[in-house]
Automatic annotation (TrEMBL):
Keywords: 4Fe-4S, Cytoplasm, Disulfide bond, Iron, Iron-sulfur, Metal-binding, Methyltransferase, rRNA processing, S-adenosyl-L-methionine, Transferase, tRNA processing. NCBIfam families: rRNA_mod_RlmN. This is Dual-specificity RNA methyltransferase RlmN. Its cofactor is [4Fe-4S] cluster. Reaction proceeds by a ping-pong mechanism involving intermediate methylation of a conserved cysteine residue.
Amino acid sequence: MTETTKVNLLGLTQPQLEGFFESIGEKRFRAGQVMKWIHHFGVDDFEAMSNIGKALREKLKACAEIRGPEIVSQDISSDGTRKWVVRVASGSCVETVYIPQAGRGTLCVSSQAGCSLDCSFCSTGKQGFNSDLTAAEIIGQVWIANKSFGTVPAKIDRAVTNVVMMGMGEPLLNFDNAVAAMQIMMDDLGYGISKRKVTLSTSGVAPMIDELGKVIDVSLALSLHAPNDTLRDRLVPINRKYPLAVVLDACKRYISRLGEKRVLTVEYTLLKDVNDQPEHAAQMVELLRDVPCKINLIPFNPFPFSGYERPSNNAIRRFQDLLHQAGHNVTVRTTRGEDIDAACGQLVGQVMDRTRRSERHIAVRQLGDEAAPSPSAANRT
Ligand code: SAH
Ligand code: SF4
């Protein structure tokens, strides 16, 4: 068997791994043993699997591998933020960001190299679509991040406590791989992350939101960005196919299936003089009247030639206050911590061309240094 036909065990869910062991004439329980080695201990060498006999180790070496995406670079910023640029099979690079906060660590994971949906304020969208990531390439980002903190026994608290599918790409357009990776994130034999702490963010691929509800119960975030169809058609082009009424209905169905007081996260990137006016806040209140949700305002993170600007701190606070007064739970993401997804959207475009390395380092520093719009606005919920 040649190198290229080896099965990569990194991206297999427990049932898939059980199927794999059966297919090579072995017992299904081997799946649990191997998953623990891979995900709890970060092992990529069958030789290290001490509870697997030599004969089976040799067999595995011949037909399988544990291969994460190649790490091109990793940066640790002064505030503890970690960033990896990894190369995937298609040759493209994607970015993963880890943000530590009191009592938790959030990892922002990419699902595609580039994105076909072309939201007008997103640097990933501006690059166009390159490739879907495999399940191994998606979960591999969690694997790499955890390993960077050293291998830890399963019982010890892990560095990555939350995952947001808010890096590069639209996860619902790489459905099977995104779902498999999220299943491994939540599996106790994988990363044991609670369903509430795994969040999939979508620009609004309505039919796939319904499909998602059939197979998984992770938290859902909708990238809204505009409170009416005319504006949203312009900012988030997929709205022309699935307009607000359709996508919000799908979100409500998804959330109601989850029960247990779970709510939709509504993401709203604030663009100066485009969607940050009081009339937009008023329309948003009306639009979300019967949607159980919390709102995350993301001040636009500028990138070269975007054509958009970040609103002033006053404008951000005014927008937040209007939503707040209408009874909404509203947070403003700062450029670290909760802002991790916005930073992903901004930074990936600057790292794709690796000849522009110096720009990337500047961008990473800015992410760590930049202050919140205002402490009160940033922290209020
Ligand atoms: N495709 C999915 C998930 C990845 S984008 C989605 O659109 O939801 C994750 C978030 O990054 C989106 O909510 C988007 O609003 C945000 N984002 C992208 N570029 C941004 C920028 N330049 N400034 C602020 N937020 C940005
Ligand atoms: Fe794609 Fe999301 Fe960027 Fe829109 S915001 S282009 S859906 S990655």
